[in-house]
């Protein structure tokens, strides 16, 4: 009895010691947050986009130009296409991809990638037909977007009214993000044939919103469009993107709170929209998706984001209106390195692509059993 009491006392002391050393700002996972991680595929080379296809396969781009389909159960990878004119750079190459929402009837695949135009780094969006297991009949929807070794964007998204949204980086030319005659530092909006919608906010322009530095995440939740954006040395952002909205870059980074740099005055004269959430120092905020599945119930009504620089997965809990981030939790910190993109299967499994410049992986995240 005495030995048992001594053991119990020791365990209690150890628990109190560990509790007292826990940093109060460190998110703490509960039993309901416990995750089970399975490696689906290894040996990949810089995957950039993963999305859940209507064939229950993961469709994937790799930066050097490969489009493939990945069996999420076996990890078997099947090459669909190699983009012939892709120009790969440090952070350029084959980037975003989206499939037509009525893929069975209209098997279109949309790709955005960098290419060489007389020695200049450019970017374009091309629509392909998916026939007999490969991509054919390329149709360029928009091109001549200034590219760079960095700051190229670019995510693609098709809205329920069948409009194509395209995020572009500033191409390392900061001032163009505020210029309506430039396609850089914007969210662009096109019809699916490349023509201009008549209800865009600026006449005869594909620009939907402006003042962006480098959006690499885009998700539509109901009627709300969210984007995740790389900041400079400060202020990675999650924004609620609205028609004709101006998000401030390069005159404003993050919130309108730096009087010495003139942010407050610029915000007042240009009606700048502040982010829902900002991170300083930056964490390399990348892709963005929305989780509302029952498998991980504490993640419901949350934005899920990947981080490159900080090597973690983030859960951003939204309030009922979707206009506020009311809590942030972090997972997989430093376990799999840089995390580039994610997609969510119908059963609630979250798939994540790493970006470690060699032997990259696709991992599957489920609730621990």
TrEMBL record:
PANTHER family: HEDGEHOG-INTERACTING PROTEIN, HIPL1 PROTEIN. This is PQQ-dependent sugar dehydrogenase. Keywords: Signal. It comes from Fibrella rubiginis. Residues 1-24 form the signal peptide. It holds the Pfam family GSDH. InterPro entries: 6-blade_b-propeller_TolB-like, Glc/Sorbosone_DH, Quinoprot_gluc/sorb_DH_b-prop. Residues 44-356 form the Glucose/Sorbosone dehydrogenase domain.
